[in-house]
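OP here, attaching both records as promised.
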Amino acid sequence: MHTQVGIVGAGPAGLLLGHLLHLNGIDSVILENRSREYVIDRVRAGVLEQGTVELMSAMGVGARLQAQGLRHEGLYLSFQGERHHINMAEHTGGKAITIYGQNEVVKDLIDARIVTSRPLHFEVENVAVHDVTSECPRITYRSNGRDEQLTCDFIAGCDGFHGICRPSIPSGTLTFYERSYPFGWLGILAEASPSSEELVYTYHERGFALFSMRSPTITRLYLQVPPEENIAHWSDEAIWNEMLARMATKDGWKPNVGPIIQKGVTPMRSFVAAPMRHGRMFLAGDSAHIVPPTGAKGLNLAASDVLVLARALREFYRGGSTEWLDRYSDVCLRRVWKAQRFSWWMTSTLHRFPDGNPFDRQRQIADLDYLTGSRAAMTSLAEQYVGLPLEVPLSSVGIA
């Protein structure tokens, strides 16, 4: 079997790329080693930048997003028992973020893929890439008990941090940039109506906390904990006690309490692999970079990556130009490093570090005090949080 673009991974990056290619008349096959249910049900990111929302709408897959997504034009920073509001729309010419779970994004994209009748295979095994520096790279895999081979013009490695595409690149070819943080996030989903219409980022002497939501009836909350923390040691009562201790403010605001329907601990790291290309294989999304979730950039970086890659492939198939293919890594990494810097800054400003001393804590409070009192500082935060301008216009892939 042959296709123009073989896509490994059916997360947001792979599915977004597949639909962008479809809209430009480019064939693709998407291979995913997990089940459809697993891909949809895993709870990940939930904050979409303005550009990601516009991308999905322009692609024709934004109907549910527009109907059910929660548009937020601001957020709160809470410290010393007080919440401070930052009106992001005011500082960015009307831009905002939208709360819409990654699982919902994936569900919409899978449904759209099925309508196109282009191949999407779940639960494939033994996936491997071959000959990526040749003009005819191959993907081998096992599906429904049969060994299969897919030849391609190009391969898109959209299979995440633990996927097979990046590790298949010969040692010494890529440069890895990494930072591990000395804490993780204990995250919960709770059946409780959100008590705030916008996100609340909290700096507290007991550690960072974040109030978010997934719908008008589901609250999403996080606590800073040690990275190796065992979730089994946290009862639901203990989680709520700690959430309330950190988040409750002097004016009486606090999260609504309800049954916890999901909980887990996620370590925090920063990671970049460069370049994001080897031969005719292009890495996109988490396979190339990981950011701490504090800045809400992971899914949005994946969307930006595949938009750049879709333009590059469109230029190649329309006129044979390789200019954008050759520029792909440089263009993507420019945005990736800006997102890494922002995510590192948000993380460093809001978390308590184990080796921190009283000087560090007072410096963090001063940083937050300045941020919430300076129009310039609030504008800087707002511009980065709602999303910097896309690296390529939507019109460059024929959807605007």
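Record two, same layout:
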Amino acid sequence: MIIRPKVRGFVCVTSHPTGCAANVQEQIDYVKSQPAINDGPKNALIIGASTGYGLASRIAAAFGCKANTLGIFFERPSERGRTATPGWYNSVALENAAKAEGLYASSLNGDAFSNKIKEQAIERIQSDMGKIDLVIYSLASPRRTDPETGEVYRSTLKPIGRDYSNKYLDTDKKTIQEASLEAATDEDISSTVKVMGGEDWELWIQALKEANVLADNCKTVAYDYIGPQVTWPIYKDGTIGRAKIDLRRAKEAINQSLGSLGGEAHVSVNKAVVTQASSAIPGVNLYVTILFKIMKELGGHEGCIEQMSRLFSDRLYSNGGTVPLDELGLIRMDDWEMEQKIQDAVSDVWPRVNTDTINELTDFEGYQSEFLRLFGFGVDGVDYEAEVEPEVEFS
């Protein structure tokens, strides 16, 4: 079949297997073009490994450090002529590329919050890998089922304390609109923390430690975002921000737990990039289009793979093993984004952006291109007029 992008609101409901594979290969090629990381991990577990920062982390570990990798994700394969999710195609392509270079790469598709997947991961590690020296936690989910109680929690993206209005970019109509969100309830806050906070990260590390599959001096990293003040009411100071505070709480608890192994836990604050989630956040997608234009002009623009390659080479596995942290104990991979000159430029542009000035003041085309690439479309060298088989399986 010939597969074309079908965008509905903030989501593309089709994905292209050849395009996804080409996108993965581009990321692999970038990592391989960088200096090798000689003291990197040997066995890495990536929880949330199929898209975005999780996928980029797996690529950086495998092709930058020659690590064996086990990826955990929840993706849908192709069925009845319907294309698979892009994360499925990404993961098949990554495994094929890794195995072609003699690297071990295996995957588990299922609910990473469940005890079942944790048990399966431990069994796979014990049988195939030995001990894990890097655990990346990069889950983003709208809901979580508590593995002990069976209760389902749903995350929300809401302000706390008062209703919130801000302008946002309607990418379908290419117009600037205003969105309003009601203030979160206490239940909204607690449920979001339950889904997006640090509890499941702690449970993973606890399970791995109890199974004796964590190596001495292991590292574990979870991902965070802070962003500029213009997005704080909906992000940093909203329900998702409360979840990220809990993520940092979990970091401290995990550090104590790993002390006997000489291990360490970190939270990395990453740069704003185009993701399916960020495209739906009022204010954030507009901020990203402005940021992209400014950082491409002034320097320092990075996507997921550039960020993760720098995280591995400049932070996690450099400086004699000492990871540089800010005053809050966080890794700041958003350092280039948050430079004063960049944020001053964003602040100058923000009030001047309207429907008539989108082309002049934002990188709308770049944003749209990056969005479609998430689903395997618009990748150089791919013939999108060619027939393609949507059913792609792991070998």
